[in-house]
Amino acid sequence: MARSADAHSHLFSGGYRGSFAGRPGVVVDETSCYVSLMADHQVQAALIVGYQDHAWCAENNSYLAEILPLNEWMRPVAFVHLNRELSVPHLVALQRQGFVGISLYVFGDEGKLGLARISSTCWAWLRAHNWLVSVNSSGPMWQTWYPILDRHPDLRLLVSHLGLPMRQVEAPPPATAVKALTDVLALSRWPGPRVKLSGFYALSEPGHDFPHRAAWPYVTALIAHFGTRRLLWGSDYSPCLDSVSFPQTLAILQYLPGLTAADRAAIGGENLLELLDQVRSSPLSDQ
């Protein structure tokens, strides 16, 4: 069986708020549950996307750093607040904790301004170390990356959830899907960006409508522009579990049209594992 690797998952102390795992009276050890799922589905590594933009998850980076030594399969990316200054010493400190990249949520004017405040020196450091930059954003906000990629074309920008195009009840015509993804598809002209095939439950209505045929035209457009070697499967564990099962998040690769067995193996794990192998460490004194 092909090696799987998950490009988008979350682990929170106390469970993801708003999901069944974080409801009052419910006790779920998200990490133990995920380890069990990994064993069942041959998942070898997982990119854990840090998020701490609310009080209930304000220490998520610290939590991930704490449990990392006990979970060698974890490859965490640290949440970065866009309203705070990011510096190379900060990145080095995260590197020492075992992080392999950063997690950005870029929405609205605050997100756009915060992204613009990140120095070229930081982007150069991220590029030099092949760190992964996991980004949640949508629509025209993806255009804010164009000038950054002009300067750092090999930046490992990972677009979450197909770029969050509009949710669909029925599959839109191909031209409509392309138009909805215009700003994401434009990222393909630089070599660094990749797109995560994740969060399908948030792109089709209802969310439990597996295998999410309403979102398939989006995937077709992404394949046409990025090819299959720049696409990454992601489960979006544990938020996904309120809509679909974990096996369904991976099984969707068996349903998507036009994929060969080699394509499914690449998207399902090989592409991410290659990126993770390329992440570079540096001497602790490197700042």
Descriptive report:
The protein has 287 residues and is an alpha/beta fold. The chain has one domain (4-278): Metal-dependent hydrolases (TIM Barrel), CATH 3.20.20.140. It contains 11 helices and 8 strands. An 8-stranded parallel β-sheet has the order 1-2-3-4-5-6-7-8, with helices on both faces. Strand 2 (43-49), helix 2 (60-67) and strand 3 (74-79) form a beta-alpha-beta unit. The radius of gyration is 18 Å and the shape is globular. The relative contact order is 0.15. Mean pLDDT is 94; it is low at 283-287.
Produce a short descriptive summary.
The protein has 287 residues and is α/β, with parallel strands linked by helices. The chain has helices at residues 30-40, 60-67, 88-97, 108-117, 120-128, 146-151, 174-180, 182-185, 216-226, 246-255, 261-278; strands at residues 4-9, 43-49, 74-79, 101-105, 132-136, 156-159, 194-197, 231-233.
Brief descriptors of the model:
single chain; 287 residues; alpha/beta; TIM Barrel; 8-stranded parallel beta sheet; 11 helices; 8 strands; globular
